[in-house]
Predict the structure.
Amino acid sequence: METTGIHHVAIICSDYKKSKQFYVEVLGFSVIKETFRKERNSYKLDLRVGSSAQIELFSFPNPPQRVSRPEACGLRHLAFVVENIDKSVCYLTSKDIQVEDIRIDEITGKRFTFFSDPDGLPLEIYEN
């Protein structure tokens, strides 16, 4: 198997309007397509991240909670590349989003930090 990248990451949210606002208006991802699936009473929102990756944001009635911390088995976090981490942190904090202290990746020497989406999903910004 030869892959050329990651196509998408799927996220199920508890409050569709709140998560849509966060990913579109706060993080600035553009909407590719929004679909309401009546038979499932569910939205599917396709978002463009960068030049080729996507996030699929889903809503379902009463989704079960998933443990994500501390260090639960499964998807650990979703990381986004940024050119300037200081500028990105200032932007996020101006939107009242709590951001952890910037750390240095001991393997690459690159700077990174974490914040959370409206459902507490750990998100990372990683300086290019």
User: Anything to note?
Assistant: The chain has two domains: 1-62, 76-128. Residues 1-62 form a domain with the 2,3-Dihydroxybiphenyl 1,2-Dioxygenase; domain 1 fold (CATH 3.10.180.10). The first helix runs from residue 16 to 26. The CA atoms of residues 7 and 62 lie 27 Å apart.
